[in-house]
Amino acid sequence: MTQLLDTLQKFSAAEEFFDFLRVDYVPQVVHVNRLHILKRFQQYLSRDPVPPGLSEADERIAYQAKLQSAYQDFVQSDAVTEKVFKVFQDKAGMQTVSVQKLQASLNDRHV
């Protein structure tokens, strides 16, 4: 593990990632979408890992680019549209219940 990655893994607040990687951001965008941005950042890293053996400067640039991309997804869109988390992937967070299940549930209550 590189020193840069080791440092990143110690962060807990989204703003720490932005500040450390020197990625400009609008605080309100991060405040509203912090978990979504960090999850998307992780998805980008999983799909296209930063190659080993880079210089620290090149490694930082690679992480900056992925965080910037994740951030831009939520500047230009929103959490419901981006569907980062499973709750948004399952029919936009909606669940359906059949009329039969509702009737059965009502019948069970009246027994």
Arithmetic mean pLDDT: 84
Helix coverage percent = 55-70%
Report the C-alpha radius of gyration, rounded.
20 Å
The first-to-last residue Cα distance is 62 Å
Q: Name the structural class.
A: mainly alpha
Helix-strand topology string: HHHHHHH
Quaternary status: single chain
What is the global morphology? elongated
- What is the number of beta strands? 0
Number of domains: 1
Number of helical regions: 7
* Beta content: under 5%
The biggest beta sheet is recorded as: none
Parts with pLDDT < 50 across at least 5 consecutive residues: none
Q: What this model shows, in words?
A:
With 111 residues, the chain is mainly α. It has one domain. Helices cover 68% and strands 0% of the residues. It has seven helices and no strands. The chain has helices spanning 3-8, 14-21, 27-47, 56-76, 79-82, 86-89, 99-109. Helix 3 crosses helix 4 (56-76). The radius of gyration is 20 Å and the shape is elongated. The model has no long low-confidence stretch (mean pLDDT 84).
Give a summary of the structure in a few sentences.
The chain has 7 helices and no strands. The protein is an all-alpha fold and 111 residues long.
